[in-house]
Amino acid sequence: MAKATETWKSERLGREVKVVRWGEEGTPVLLFPTAGGDAEEIERFWMIDVLKHLLEQKRIKIYSCDSTAGQALLAESNKVAHAARAQQRFDAFVYHELVPLIRRDCKNPAAEVVAAGASIGAYQSLAAVCRHPDVFKLAICMSGTYDLIKFMDGEANADHHHNTPSRFLKDLPEGPHLDQLRKRYVLLVHGKGKAEEPAQSWRVADVLGSRRIPNRVVEWGEEWPHDWTTWRKMLPLYLDELIPKPA
């Protein structure tokens, strides 16, 4: 299976970043790490192994990057202002640096990207589609925590509001952005086992539904905890369902 790694000094993050790609052809999937994860976390936790059949069928190419915003959330004393600024920088990096790299690699300047992730990675996937529906066409969000204020010290500020889809979508005016977002799709899937928070998905679905943004919530049973064992079952299933099969 083809694997390629690229590193560079990110202008927007002010640090070296690493992006890893698995696969040769197919729909580009940006798989966000969990909170403090790096670009190869998904390989260490055997996610690439369970997606091998989709990669070998050339239905998908997987990209992953260092979770610099999640690392900041864990490291910067949990202050809202610090974490919100880190998230804004990360979002700018994804949109202005990572997406162009993916499109160059796919040899398609208009390639639309699938966003996927678990836990904090689910939040990043939702945020990517909701903030940039011109680029991201689908979010597969597993066991998500969708408002990070619960991890922070302080009150939500304007930056945090702008970073959080369940907050900013309520105020998003009618117009081209919302029109485009209504052509996208958000899947919110979670278990009911240890450390899962099903209410997180339902709250987001309520907001999406109120703005007529297509979405679906899937609830797995109590035997599915907030863990990689769950996500390794979920992601292959829903990528296979939602990624077009070859003619």
CATH superfamily: Alpha/Beta hydrolase fold, catalytic domain
Helix-strand string = EEEHHHEHHEHEHHHEHEH
| N- to C-terminal distance | 23 Å
User: What name does the CATH topology carry?
Assistant: Rossmann fold
CATH class: Alpha Beta
The low-confidence parts are none
Protein described:
With 247 residues, the chain is an alpha/beta fold. It has a single domain, classed as 3-Layer(aba) Sandwich (Rossmann fold). Helices cover 43% and strands 21% of the residues. The chain has 11 helices and 8 strands. The chain has helices spanning 41-44, 47-50, 52-56, 68-75, 80-106, 120-131, 158-163, 165-171, 176-181, 198-210, 228-242, and strands at residues 3-10, 15-22, 27-32, 60-65, 113-118, 136-142, 185-190, 215-219. Strands 1-2-4-3-5-6-7-8 form an 8-stranded mixed sheet, with helices on both faces. Helix 4 packs antiparallel against helix 5 and helix 8 (165-171) runs parallel beside helix 10. The radius of gyration is 17 Å and the shape is globular. The relative contact order is 0.14.
Using brief descriptors, characterize the structure shown.
247 residues, alpha/beta, Rossmann fold, eight-stranded mixed beta sheet, 11 helices, 8 strands, 43% helix, 21% strand
